[in-house]
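ok trying again, last paste got cut off:
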Amino acid sequence: MITVVAKLKVKVGELEEFMVLVRELIFETLKETGCLEYDLHKHTEKDGVYAFIEKWDTNDDLKAHFDTDHFKNILPQIVGHCEGEPEIDVYKTS
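nice, full thing came through this time. structure:
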């Protein structure tokens, strides 16, 4: 299993637009083959800090996710509402 943690900092005043896009990305991604979990979590102490927590059956499933139309179209819009680029860490079960 592959786990992805993608941390983002949302720009002040842009949370509503960010969340609309996130909901669409989550809805579409959960339909993908090999997607076991795909959700957004809000930091408990840092305002505007969020993390996507993703679990994928295989690395190939994750790679296929990156090639989907919804990912290619929605992710740049999400990042546009954030400060800087996402901080992404990928883990696998040992």
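cool. The radius of gyration is 13 Å. Residues 15-29 form the longest helix (15 residues).
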